[in-house]
Design goal:
mainly alpha; globular
Length: 503
């Protein structure tokens, strides 16, 4: 019989703890390898806004006057605000575009001595969640876990997201931990349950797209009693998933209330939805009819709302391009106006919008390559933040493989393709010939993982622009499912063979 989460582990408690710690340390080193190969944590343009807030907080805590941000003017000041967008400079809300959560996570690492620890911290957290997952489905020995970590490090995008100073890593961890929390709820002590609730709250609050994903996961978990009635009970789901979702929404809302007296989860959400509706067409159609009778600020840009460039789609151009509508208007009133336009557009074209959302979700579902931003050249807005933190960070950033366009993107994409193809072939073989040998827990997790992957595509496709990196952040869950199923089937086969030999 395959081990269950509440079955006793082999060996003495002290040796089990020691082996778990050793496995976590080794896994952390393995998963951090791409960042080490790069010579610097991977940086995205949005990294600057997360780091700017965390660096200010770190400076306040350690009292380092030399690291305090200095007033800027001219090109450097413009660059430092570029990733935030023009409206941020006209609002009093530091969380206008991005929530407080990831910046709070980065605070201990926003110094010249600790910055390089970010990939290791994210790798350690990933390894911990994975180890909990393996044990929750009955795979309690260290060897299968370590072999799987190596496979994930070589053939998936997991270690790339571990190395990024971005919250994208936590999307897949949210999906995994939602299963782990519910599956192991009965075996956890009260203190351990509080820890799980806190970690789930962080995973949900760290990115706005995690709220709809968490809602989808909650719905799926309420369906789980049909498969695993003993573990997936309503109390575990309410306390392990629903409560963290409520806490996450409360934290995000409280941060906006305290910072800007705005009773919202995200002040900029109407603007992002408007960009999506402009890009897909319904908002442009509505405004073409409404502008002759309405005094919307955006009506001054009506003739340019369809503009795009080689690098930017219509919605991205609308939001971020210097000649896009948002930057040209640069008025906080546009946010309130966006909410009104969104509501009117949805009432006018619900069918059109639903079709677009479905099409975009399907596009996002199959758009999952390693993004070419892994070779983004050094950006002034990011360099400015590293100059603020101090030390050798500016020169190390400029000399990284990413900043020089030297990271082996083609190799990373090839390995990802090989990993996904191998995982698909393995799953097909297991389903066709050995599905009864795979533990029900593994199939239950597969159901949760597939739901999470689809929910991610739907949330992004409906509310944002389709980009590789959004689906790439969760696509590695499919090889993970294949590995779990293979280990589970192998363990069952050994049990059957041993039983036959004994008879």
């Amino acid at each position: 019989m395959q081990e269950t989460p509440d079955a006793p582990s082999l060996g003495r408690p002290g040796s089990r703890i020691a082996s778990s710690i050793a496995a976590l340390i080794l896994s952390t080193i393995i998963l951090s390898f791409p960042a080490s190969l790069n010579g610097f944590p991977f940086i995205f343009y949005d990294t600057s806004s997360y780091l700017k807030r965390s660096a200010v907080a770190a400076t306040f805590i350690i009292g380092d006057d030399h690291a305090s941000p200095k007033p800027q003017s001219g090109p450097s000041a413009t660059a430092s605000h570029a990733s935030d967008g023009p409206l941020v400079r006209h609002t009093q809300n530091p969380f206008f575009l991005r929530p407080i959560t990831y910046s709070a996570f980065l605070v201990p690492f926003s110094t010249k001595l600790t910055f390089f620890l970010i990939p290791f911290a994210q790798a350690l957290l990933s390894a911990y969640v994975l180890l909990r997952l393996f044990r929750s489905v009955g795979i309690r020995h260290i060897a299968p876990f370590l072999v799987s970590v190596v496979a994930l490090a070589v053939f998936t995008s997991l270690p790339i997201h571990v190395g990024y100073v971005m919250p994208d890593l936590f999307t897949a961890l949210l999906i995994i931990f939602s299963f782990v929390t519910i599956r192991t709820w009965r075996q956890r002590t009260m203190l351990a349950r509080l820890f799980d609730i806190g970690l789930m709250t962080f995973f949900i609050a760290v990115h706005l797209s995690h709220i709809p994903i968490a809602l989808a996961l909650i719905v799926v978990c309420f369906l789980m009693p049909a498969l695993l009635p003993r573990e997936f009970n309503w109390r575990a789901i309410v306390l392990g998933l629903c409560l963290p979702l409520l806490l996450a929404v409360s934290v995000l809302t409280a941060s906006n209330v305290l910072a800007a007296r705005k009773y919202v989860i995200s002040e900029s959400s109407p603007l992002f939805l408007l960009a999506r509706l402009v890009g897909d067409g319904p908002a442009r159609a509505y405004l073409a009819k409404a502008c002759p009778h309405k005094g919307y600020l955006i009506c001054t840009e009506l003739d340019r709302l369809g503009a795009h460039s080689k690098e930017a789609s219509i919605s991205d151009y609308f939001l971020w391009n210097p000649n896009g509508a948002v930057k040209r208007i640069a008025d906080p009133r546009l946010v309130a106006e966006a909410a009104e336009i969104n509501a009117a557009t949805i009432r006018a074209y619900p069918g059109w919008i639903a079709v677009n959302a479905t099409r975009n979700a399907l596009r996002q579902l199959v758009t999952f390559q390693v993004d070419d931003d892994i070779n983004n050249r050094a950006a002034p807005m990011v360099s400015t933040i590293f100059e603020m933190i101090g030390g050798d960070l500016p020169s190390q950033y400029l000399n990284s493989a990413q900043s020089r366009g030297r990271f082996p993107l083609g190799t990373a994409r090839l390995l990802l393709a090989v990993g996904l193809a191998a995982a698909a072939a393995l799953l097909v073989q297991l389903v066709a010939t050995r599905r009864r040998h795979v533990a029900p827990d593994v199939w239950a997790f597969a159901f949760v993982a597939v739901t999470g992957v689809c929910a991610n595509a739907l949330a992004i496709g409906a509310l944002s622009e389709v980009h590789d990196r959004y689906q790439n952040r969760v696509i590695w869950l499919l090889p993970l499912v294949a590995l779990l199923a293979a280990w589970s089937a192998s363990a069952r086969r050994r049990e059957v063979s041993a039983s036959e030999a004994a008879n």
